[in-house]
Design brief:
The chain is built from 11 helices and 12 strands. It is of the alpha+beta class. Helix 1 packs parallel to helix 6 and helix 3 packs parallel to helix 5.
Length: about 425
């Protein structure tokens, strides 16, 4: 029998489940750096990427700064200098070390960062075992946000590692297993959707209890009739665009996109390499021949939009994408996400008879929607309100997750966003067109 001073048994069980989930996510981050050397974890390959060591420290900084500093009795930081070194962009917390110079932080070393994680994890476990009753709700909300934040950085870890290794011809692959097997090509089909009012945004009944603030509020939009392709565009289809002079014909490109092509002398997507008459591509398994049946990835918005124009179609809006994902009953459990361990887009395993397939996993799909607030949007109060809202400018929305997105992290309402020139993410496209074309 529980004494009056003890927490109810169901509360103790909840605490243990929260602690288990915390440890599961934290262990997953450490598992991602196991194939790397300390030297691999130090280097920053471009200003948009971060060293693996920095990712591991920053997500730890999040828990220390937003949970322990507020709620741990007798709080003392692991190292007060880390407050600046591993603050990404939270102006409300204080100064930040320049993003483009994170690779210059040779100290603290990787061992020091692991020690930082270990100490913060132990302190978090103690706090979760005996949370202050008056702060329990806030702690759990911040814990859930922090774990989803860490899962975002797990994906960034893999994309940044891939970019880094593309510069090193000696290092070899990150993953050992090449996932490609013999497949049969799936023809492109179209699925139609009638015009009408559609309600979009986070729905707890379908999407689960958690969401980021940029997925709210749920609201209605009018959609004209449209069609959506049955699968993402493949490497083989994109190769046909290249061979038809796609990178040499300005009529397919937005003005900024054409300037981007010419200034960078671009002739193919990121990571593509000529091998005589053929193409090879850098992957997390090393340099491999392009498989024509797999979804094309590492496209900028400019490239996705140009391909759509060349194909006589267009990119879907994010509302069109979300409606199709919900109405087709797209299932994440069949998706090629990070838990599969492929770390590369895969071809469809079978034909989809009743709606678009591969809506989740494989590649993030560019939409034509600018990253902007939904009607009535309000960011969260305080410094955590800087998480999403401040970036709603000069970016486009992507939907669906990729082959390096943690399982369970993505949902139909999830809004990813990047500037139009970004390529290093696993970003591809799915075609849409107006009905009657």
């Amino acid at each position: 029998m529980t004494s009056p001073a003890s927490p109810p048994r169901h509360a103790a069980i909840a605490h243990s489940l929260e602690a288990l989930e915390y440890q599961r996510v934290r262990n997953a981050s450490l598992a991602l750096i196991k194939p790397l050397t300390p030297e691999d974890c130090q280097v920053q390959s471009m200003p948009d990427a971060s060293p693996s060591k920095w990712h591991l420290a920053h997500v730890t900084w999040f828990f220390e700064t937003f949970i322990l500093e507020r709620h741990e009795p007798g709080f003392r930081p692991f190292d007060e200098r880390f407050r600046v070194l591993f603050n990404s962009y939270y102006q409300g917390v204080g100064e930040q070390f320049p993003r483009a110079q994170r690779g210059l932080l040779t100290h603290p070393g990787l061992d020091d960062v692991i020690a930082y994680r270990t100490q913060v994890d132990e302190r978090m476990r103690r706090l979760l075992d005996t949370p202050p009753p008056e702060a329990r709700g806030e702690i759990l909300e911040l814990l859930t946000l922090g774990l989803n934040h860490e899962q975002q950085h797990q994906e960034l870890l893999l994309t940044d590692i891939k970019h880094l290794l593309s510069f090193n011809p000696v290092r070899g692959g990150y993953a050992k297993r090449w996932p490609m097997t013999a497949v049969q090509a799936q023809g492109l089909r179209w699925f139609g959707y009638r015009e009408g009012l559609y309600e979009m945004g986070h729905d707890p009944q379908q999407d689960g209890a958690f969401c980021f603030d940029n997925e709210t509020p749920r609201h209605r939009v009018w959609l004209d009739a449209y069609e959506l392709a049955s699968r993402p565009v493949t490497h083989g289809e994109y190769l046909a665009f290249i061979e038809d002079g796609g990178y040499e014909r300005p009529e397919f490109w937005l003005s900024m996109g054409w300037d981007w092509v010419r200034s960078g002398q671009r002739r193919a997507p990121l990571y593509w390499r000529r091998d005589g008459a053929d193409w090879r591509t850098h992957t997390l398994q090393g340099l491999v021949p392009i498989d024509p049946h797999t979804p094309v990835c590492h496209l900028s918005y400019f490239e996705a939009d140009a391909y759509a124009h060349w194909a006589g179609a267009r990119l879907p809006t994010e509302a069109e994408w979300e409606r199709a994902a919900r109405e087709s009953g797209a299932a994440q459990q069949r998706a090629n996400l990070a838990d599969r361990g492929a770390f590369h887009p895969m071809p469809p395993s079978s034909a989809v008879p009743d709606g678009p397939g591969q809506m989740f996993g494989d590649v993030w799909e560019w939409t034509s929607s600018s990253y902007a607030p939904f009607p009535g949007y309000r960011p969260l109060p305080g410094a955590v309100g800087e998480y999403n809202g401040k970036f709603m400018c000069n970016q486009y929305v992507l939907r669906g997750g990729s082959c390096v997105t943690p399982a369970g992290h993505v949902r139909a309402s999830y809004r990813n966003f990047f500037p139009p020139e970004a390529q290093w993410q696993f970003s591809g496209l799915r075609l849409a067109r107006d009905t009657g074309r």
